[in-house]
Structures are given as C-alpha cells and as structure tokens.
Amino acid sequence: MAIQFTSHEVKDYLKEKRKLKSFLADLFATEGQGLQSLHYVFCSDAYLLEINKQFLQHDTYTDIVTFEMGEDPSITEGEIYVSIERVLENAEKFKVPVNQELHRVIFHGALHLCGFKDKSKKEEVLMRNKEDEYLKKYFGEL
C-alpha cells in the first residue's frame, strides 16, 4: 500500500505526513475498504478547474476532485486533487484553522473512495458526520 502527497505549484501546508498516511490506512480499514494506492495532489484553483473541465465536464471551481483508478471496487487505487486556494478560502469562511480544513478535505476524498456520497441532503449529512468523526479521531477534540 502506498500513499503519496504531491504539491503542484503551491505551498506545501501538510505536516506530519507519516502520521497522516498511517491514519488514512486505518480509515480505509475501519470503513472496510481495501487500499492499494492513494495519491493526493495539492494544486491551484486553475489547475483543478482544468481537471474538472477535462474529466468531469464541470466548468466550476471546487475544493476537491476524486478519481478511482482501479478496476476492483473493493480495493482503492485513487487520485485526489485538492485546491489549496479553496481550502484557504473555506478555512477563512468557516472560521476554522487551515490545518483542520485541509484535513477535512483530505478525509472527504478518502471517504468518497470508501463509497460515501454527498449528492443528496441525507448523504451530505452522513458525509459531514464522518468527516467530523475522523477529524476528532485525528486531532482529538476540536
């Protein structure tokens, strides 16, 4: 199992990468999802917008785009693109530390790969609860 973090033309805000890799492996195990490989790419709004247009035909800014690359639905081989600009803006908007918002988005992408959706109101509530659960496990009480 390999988990990688790459910054593409943006500042690297991620600390304690070894701890996070271990935590993400535990998240997948807890959710009953196999994990072969996972690559996070932290990038700019412009870079993620191009990915959103090219692969999803969405002409909108977003904080995250998640791709399952593998053929076996029970074993994740994923790529997750995160806009650092959106993370910084959302941290300010929601008045939370940047590190907390960054990890929320990281866990959000992992949860998508574990099968969680957020299209309906019910799915969105479950996703937020799961994000909060993992944020509390990772950081302790917030």
Automatic annotation (TrEMBL):
An example Gene Ontology CC term for this record: cytoplasm
A Gene Ontology molecular function term of the record: zinc ion binding
Keyword DNA-binding: no
One BP annotation, GO: rRNA processing
Cofactor dependency: Zn(2+)
Entry note: cofactor: Binds 1 zinc ion.
Residues binding Zn(2+): H108, H112, D118
This protein's UniProt keywords: Cytoplasm, Endonuclease, Hydrolase, Metal-binding, Nuclease, Ribosome biogenesis, rRNA processing, Zinc
InterPro entries noted in UniProt: MetalPrtase_cat_dom_sf_prd, YbeY
E.C. no: 3.1.-.-
One Pfam family this sequence matches: YbeY
Compartmental location: Cytoplasm
Function: Single strand-specific metallo-endoribonuclease involved in late-stage 70S ribosome quality control and in maturation of the 3' terminus of the 16S rRNA.
Family stated for the protein in its record: Belongs to the endoribonuclease YbeY family.
Stored NCBIfam families: rRNA maturation RNase YbeY
PANTHER family given in the database record: ENDORIBONUCLEASE YBEY, CHLOROPLASTIC
Protein's name according to its UniProt entry: Endoribonuclease YbeY
Record organism: Chitinophaga arvensicola
Lineage per the UniProt record: Bacteria, Pseudomonadati, Bacteroidota, Chitinophagia, Chitinophagales
